[in-house]
Each structure stands twice: as structure tokens, then as C-alpha cells.
Queue: 3 jobs
Job 1
Amino acid sequence: MGKLDGRVAIVTGGGRGIGAEVAKTFAAEGAAVVVNDLGASMDGSATEGTPAEEVTEQIRKAGGKASANNCDVTSFAQTAGLVAQAVKDFGRLDIVVNVAGIIRDGMIFKMEEKQWDAVIAVHLKGTFNTSRHASVYWRENRGGEYRLIHFISGSGLWGAPAQPNYAAAKMGMVGLSNSCATALASYGVTSNCIAPVAYTRMTASLEGKSTTMDYSPGNEKLSTRNVVPPVVWLASEQSSWMTGRIIQCGNGRIGLISEPRVEREVTTPGVWDLDNAFEEMNSTFKDAVESPNPFRKAKG
Ligand SMILES: NC(=O)c1ccc[n+]([C@@H]2O[C@H](COP(=O)([O-])OP(=O)(O)OC[C@H]3O[C@@H](n4cnc5c(N)ncnc54)[C@H](O)[C@@H]3O)[C@@H](O)[C@H]2O)c1
């Protein structure tokens, strides 16, 4: 018995890296998988190879069910076809995993408009596109255990300095996921995010540079295999009690990120006087703002 027997999944960006690992594991656990990938270069400026076809072939050779799709997730029209393909090829759709991604790094003061637009388009609009089309299908076919799973990043959670576009896109996906979690609960859909870490082409440039992580192909703990278990769990019927949350995973760890909460609060019975608000905030908030954030150091 597989953990995903009889379920049908779309995995965007399923041709390489983490997406390929997710697609192959889903198939090994009994799901039929539409492997979407257009073979983008890491910055999305070119296409190369046929990774979706290769992963599909590997799944089939191993006895699993898969079909390849080459659509660009930034296209609203093409992603409608992606959802239709899952239903046409395998009779239904239960799970959408939004993994497709590119990076075009640069500090905020040097970032070009096209760097911003390209990254927002793949991560944020791409995630909207697939989620939107899948939600129409799920609303018309109630009674299932449906899943949206979105790949976000610690880059947005903690604020990587050279990735304003990527960080913003990923945190936009968190807002989108939270909105879907509340909007689609009555249709049997959960929506959660995964913030992974793994050694792939996207992190290969960090080899020998990180003080916190051993990014190297030989480090098994940073294998894409260590990202997949919580993704399979979210995709399974066992995770119906969790929605609107973020799981951080990789390097042998699986963590549940906390919900945003009001940490400290000052109040006034009427309308704030500015001096009073300054004083209350300085005295009440400052010692709460000490941050374990690896990137951020505020002055003062
Ligand atoms: N590797 C990490 O440590 C890490 C950390 C944080 C977040 N992530 C996120 O996890 C996901 C997977 O990352 P990865 O490291 O496996 O990257 P990867 O570059 O190995 O794979 C990304 C895949 O997405 C595909 N893709 C890009 N644009 C596309 C488009 N418009 N339409 C369809 N497919 C497209 C690419 O062709 C590629 O195969 C990404 O969303 C990434 O941002 C990765």
C-alpha cells in the first residue's frame, strides 16, 4: 500500500531538483503525476533540455503513472490546460504542488524592473494560476481530500538581502496560501507552504560559502530526499487537520513555523498622542525585537 494510492497530482517544476524528487516519490507512493516543467535556465531567461519528459520516463520505467507537461506556469491560459491534462490523463485531480522557480538576485538598489517582474511572474503569478484553475475543478467536484502545497523560502521568512524580488514573491505566496486555506476549506481543500533547504542547482553556488550549512553534493542530509517526507504527508489524506501553515524542512529537520501573533501591545483609551505612543513603544517593544534572524541586524 502506497501513501498516495489512487491520488492524482500536478507537480510544477517537476523536472529537476526538489520537484523531480517530489514527483518520483509521489509516483512511488501510488499517485499518478503530471510532471510539469518547461526546462527553464536558473534565471528563467532560456529553456534547455526536456526534464519533464525525462522524469516522466523514469517514473514509467519504475512502474509508476506519469505524463509530461511543458507549459509555462506564468501563463493563465496554459495552466488551465495543465489542470485539464490531469483530469484527461488520470480522471481526476487531488493535489497541486507549486515548485517551479527561478532566481534573479540583486540588491534592492540595483534591481532592474525585469528582474523583479520575471521572479514575481514565476513564483507568485504561477502559483495563483495553478491554484485558481484547480480550485474551479475542486469547487465543481466536492467531496475529495484536495491539497495545495506551495514551495516558499526562508529567503522571504528571514529577508535574504540580495533577493528582494524572490523574498517578496515567496511571502506573497504565503498570503495567497492563507487566503486559499480559508476560502477553500468548505470544498475539502487544504493549502500549506513548504520552506525547504536542499542542495540543488539553485543552492550550488553556496558551496563552501555558508557558515551554517554544508552545501555540497556529498552531504546526504541536504539531499532533496530530506525535503520530501512532509510534502508526501501534506499530499496524503492524513493531513486534513492542517491548513494555512508553513513547514520548514531539509537538512534532517522538519519544523512547524509559528502563526503570526501580536507579541506585545500598548493601548490608549482614546486617540494616541505622538509623544505618548513613542514612549510606550520604545519601552514596551524594544526588548522583544531581539531577533535570531540570520540576516537582520537593526541599528541601535
Ligand atoms: N534548493 C533550496 O534549498 C531551496 C530553498 C528555498 C526554496 N526553494 C524553492 O524550491 C523550489 C525548487 O527549487 P530547486 O532548488 O529544486 O530548483 P531547480 O532550479 O532545481 O528547479 C526548479 C524547476 O522549475 C522549473 N521552472 C522554472 N520556471 C518555470 C516555469 N515558468 N514553468 C514551469 N517550470 C518552470 C525549472 O525548469 C526547474 O526544473 C523553488 O520554488 C525554489 O524557489 C529551494
Job 2
Amino acid sequence: MSELQLMVLVLAVIYGWECLAWLRRGGVAFRKDWRGHWRLAHPAAVLGNQTGGVVVAQPLPPLGYLVTAYQSPLSFSPDGVFSYVAQCVNPGWRPPQAARYFSFAEIKTITVVNRQVRLNNTLLLSAASVYQAEHLAGQLRQLLPLDPARRANAIRALQRDSLDTKAIQRRWEAFLVTGNRLRWLANGLLAYLFVLAPAGFWYFGFVRGWLPLLLGLLAFTITNTVLFHRAHRRLYPEADDDRLTQDCLILLAPATSARSHDALARHLLEPFHPLAVAQLFLPVAEFRTFARRVVLELRHPCLPVCPATAPARAAAAEVWSRTAWLTEVEAFVAKHGISLPELLRPPERTEPGVQSYCPRCEAQFTAATGECTDCGGLPLVRFPGA
Ligand SMILES: [Zn+2]
């Protein structure tokens, strides 16, 4: 293998790495492919573990986008906050969670240290990103000074805000102002790195070719860095530290520079519930499938619903929060033209002999009664007429 081939291979491996993103369970990724179609992706089971998995952004031009959205990892009640939720938007088991409870009366300070949200300097939870940590801390600061009655209304309002598709649309359009330019620059940079630069080195040789090719590369990375920096400051005004890190990487690492549109887009919609992003981005049939999963999960989470060691006030917060979410999510689904009884009808029987099904994972059983062990012993539901 020649030095030139080795250089291109190393660059391709680094670029491939840049196309991978870690996605925590409790979140989903939305990928836009080269045809302009959005697809939903859950954390991969093959390249993953209990806490999350890898998702792959489309690597080849014309490039698309990759954005992530997470369900709230906090159960709020009028009395306190619990860093645990029973439901999970992904198939399979819920991820491990910190499960720490604080009553609002005992909270004196709310701080964010990297991805950690701390109350009274004690860990509440480690969020999926620094952006999510700041968002959750902002919600806590908003709820803390209120009395319990007002806090109940404020929690419901926060849940409704996270389902606001108009706000998502506005934020996405604000992103596209620069996002589209960065994406086309990334397409150009990929062509430069993997076609034009190797051809230039092959034709002119390293000695004559390195300076003009380096200047061409710098023209791409400097333009990318300036555009990224301005857009990042506009879209994420609080995230100065992360912006500085990203600026340096985009300026100095060409493979990172070729994914700068993803770096700008990825955390953009994290304050919103994945269901609302799905309504905006996905085709109707795929939105319905995801909506069914979200509603079934809220109605029938895995057992036990709460860790056995959790205090009674924490268990009450989980129930209060999930009940409020179910009300908001069902109203959201109905508002977008989906009949709830139709959405939640029993699954089609896979074989004539089956008599019951699990209301959560929808596995089917020949026994008329029993429990689904995959869902922690959830009681089975008989098919109509079985
Ligand atoms: Zn099940």
C-alpha cells in the first residue's frame, strides 16, 4: 500500500468514527437521508449496552442530518423531583437511573457541573448532554419558588411545552439558516478530502502539491469554523465551553469539520419530547407506530414500576408525573388526528392458537392468563373473544 493510499485509508477510518453517535436509552435519533426522508432510530442493541447504543449518521454525500430527542429523565410532582421514570420510549428494558428524590422544600441550590445536575451540591442525575443538563436545571429553577398548587400547573405547562410542534418548527428553521450552508460545505469538503486532494498529490507529488492543497483545506475548515461558531452562539447562547471545544476540533480536524452540520444539529431539539419531533418529521404511518409505543409504555410500564428502595414520596412523584404525561400525550395524539381507541386496539393475532398478549411489548401467548416475564411480570390481556 502506498503512502497516499494509507493516508486516505486513515482519513476514511477517522471520518467513519465521526459518523457514529452515542444515544442514551430514553432517547431516539432522527436521521435525514440523501432523499430528504426522515427516519427514526433507537440505540443499537448490537453496538450498545444497558445505558445506550450507537446510531450511524448517513456517511456518504449528499449528506443529511442527525438530531436526538429525549423523554424527560425526571419525575416532577408538586412536592418533589425524582431522577427516575418508569417509561422508556425505546423497546426493551428501561435504562439504569440515579433514582434520587429531593422535596422542593429541601432544595437550596441548583447547579450544573458538566453533564451533572446537582441539588444542594448532591448529584440528582447525570444528563445525556450538557445541553439537557442546563435545560433540566432551568426547569427546576422555574418550579422551585412556586407553591404546590401553582407548581402542579407549571409542571403540566412544561410537559405541554415539550410537545409544542410549532416551537420545534421555529427552532429547526432557525437552524437551517446556517445548517444548510454547513451541510453543503461538508459535501464539498468530503469531495476535496477523498477525491481532489488525493488526485492532486498523485499528479503533482507531495513536494509540489502539499502547500496549495493545505491552503485549500484551510479555506474549507476556516469557513466551516466561522459559520459554525456564529450559528452555535445564536442557537446555544449559554454553551460557551462546548462551543470553544467544537470550534477547535472543526478548525483542526478535517474529518470533524466534515460533520460540523451534525455537531450543530444534534442537540437542537433535546428540550422537546421525541413524540413531538416524530409528529413533525416522520411520515404519518411511522408517527402512529411510535405514538402507540409511547402511549402503551406510559399506560403499562415494566414492573416493578419503581425501585423497591425508593421512599413512598418518590414513588408518588413517579405516579403523579406519569399520569400527567399520559394526559398530555393522549391529548397531543388526538390533536394530531389519531383516534385513541383505534391507536390502542389489540394487536393482530400472529397465530390462530394464541389467546393473550402482553399490553406493553405485545408478545403473544397460547395461555389465556399469565404474566410477561420480559416486562417484569406484567399481567397478560386476553384477546377479544378468546
Ligand atoms: Zn411484555
Job 3
Amino acid sequence: MKWPRTDLCDLFGIEHPILLAPMSGATTPALVAAVSNAGGLGGHGCTTFSGVAFREQVAAIRSASNRPFHVNFFAHVDPPKDGQAGPAMRAMLQDLWNENGLGVLPAAEASWPTFGNELLEAVLETRPAVVSFHFGMPEASVIAAIKQAGCILLCSATTVAEAVALEAAGVDAVIAQGAEAGGHRGTFLGDVMGGTVGTMVLVPQIAWAVNIPVIAAGGIMDGRGIAAAFALGASGVQLGTAFLSCPEASVSEDQRAALLAACTRDTPTLVTKGVSGRPARGLSNRLLTSVVQLEDQAAPFPMQNALTRQLSGLGDPDLAVMWAGAGAGASRAMPASELMATLIDETQTALVGLT
Ligand SMILES: Cc1cc2nc3c(=O)[nH]c(=O)nc-3n(C[C@H](O)[C@H](O)[C@H](O)COP(=O)(O)O)c2cc1C
């Protein structure tokens, strides 16, 4: 396959400029290795890991692949200790807890900190080829240390201003995350609800504004979407939702079934900060439609998770948090290597068909 732009492949040392989106809780070493072995760039969501667990995950990926991959962390500002959900949000969630015999709603608290020294040491020791951040970048000394270790740096932008700031901070390529994207919006400058521009609008504007390669993300599910991203000025794509229905992904059977059933109907997804404290897109169900109405009363990210996690763990599809993008209805169940081969073939066909 001859790609229209190869700067990203050259940067990473890969054959196909298709990135597996790092998805905390959903990506696995097997999925990461399968995408990298197929010539793309596997990505692993590592934000909730301890340093020890991170080292184990990197070792597991390396035992299954000797190709480059990327590891991803959240670089959010830690919340104030006394940040709590508002009374109406707590009352509504307490009703859901009562209905399910979960007892008294606890105080909101953060179950993991932002990227700090423990994970930094583990990154510097293991030196993955590529390191990516979400919710902005860590402080300059941390960026310098990671670059000095020889890692390539990526970060998501949801606005042109963010992309320009990331280029100035020294990232090697920018991920343009459009509003269709599943999971958390990476917005880090200004209003967190402000970064809601769609992929088709965001990618060309960011491609104009920066001189580093642009990776399009959000709603890309097949080769037609990949070809479109190149037409808009991207040098590569990052797909998350499309890989959730691969057998190597760690998703509940309910989420897998919901994604695949989605092919036969419209699949409503919605963005709310009511689940975690930051805006994120997931499959619409009772939990998401309930919290979205009171989302201004959510505890700060990631503390709100402490109020919704137990509900999500009940195994009830109406109450489970199933992060997914607006393209969920185009999900296909196939092993990651087969999905990669299909995406590459489809892109070629789409590119040829346009000429
Ligand atoms: C289940 C799920 C979990 C995600 N977790 C992360 C994460 O941990 N770190 C991150 O940078 N992005 C995360 N994202 C966002 C992706 O990086 C990417 O922006 C998004 O998947 C692209 O849109 P798409 O899902 O429509 O392909 C997640 C997305 C999903 C669907």
C-alpha cells in the first residue's frame, strides 16, 4: 500500500500510519502487539497502572512484538481534596445505589493521581518508542526527560489553539481529536466543554496551523474514513471504537453485544462529564442519560468515578459505562490483524476510487 503521506511512518518506523487508540481498561498487551505486528502502531492506556504494573504490561507487549508501540497517560491537574458532587447529583445517584442494594454513597475521591514520578521512572527505564498524553502535557522538565530518553511524544488536541500550544511544547506529532471520538475529550485549554469541533472541521484547520504531522481521531471506522482523513491533511489516523469489538480488547460482553447490535440501527452516544468529572462519549443508557442532566454538579475529575464505578460494575447494561464513539454503529467483530488488513485494503480502494 502506497500512502499519500509518509512522514508519520518515517517518524515511528512503521509501515502503515494507523494507530490503535490507547484506551484505559480496554486495550490489552495482545491487542497492542497485534496492531504493531500488522504494521500499525499499537497503543496502550496506562494511566491507572502503578509503576510495577506498567513494567509488567510493557514486558507483556514486548514478549508478543518487537515493533514500536505507544503508551499513554493522563496529564490532568489533580483535583482539590475537598471537591464533592452537588446535592442533587448525590441524591439521584443514592437512589440508584439504593435500587441496587449498594448501601450508602461514599464521598467522591480520586482513585489514581495524575502522571507523576513513579510512572515517569518506569517510562525512563523501559523507554517505549512512543509516549502519548491526554488532557495536555506534563511540566517542561518531564517532557525534556522523556525526550532525552529517546521517546517520541504525542498529545491530543481538540482545538487549533491546543495544537499550536502542543507544537510549541515540543510534541513530535499532534492527535486532532474530533467531537465524534469515544472516551474522554482531551481538551486542556479553556472551557472543558469547549472542544467539541467535529473531526472533519478540526483536522484541516490543525493541519494548516502546525508544521508537525497530524493524526486524525474521532469517528473513523473504515478505510473510507481513513482516506478522508488524508484528504483533510492528516498524515495518519488513530482509531479506538473500531478496535473495541476485536476479541483481543478487554470489554464486557454487554458492551461487545451493544457495539455489534449497533450495526442494525442508529446507536446513540452522548458526551457527559457526569460519569468521571470530565466530558467523555459513551453508549447512551440509563446511567448516562441520568447523570448528564445533573452534570454541572459532578465532582472534579477523576473523583466522580467513585460515585458511578460500582453501578457500572453490576453487569447491568443500563447502568454500565461503555465508552464508545459516534461511529459505534459501524463496529465489526474481527481479530485485530484482520481488521488492520481490512482497513488497509479499504483505504486503497477508497483512494483509487476517488481518482
Ligand atoms: C473505551 C475508550 C477508552 C479510551 N481511553 C483513552 C485513554 O485512556 N487515553 C486516551 O488518550 N484516549 C482514550 N480514549 C480516546 C481515544 O484516544 C481516541 O481519541 C478515540 O477513541 C478516537 O475516536 P473513536 O473512538 O471514534 O475511534 C478512549 C476511547 C475509548 C472509546
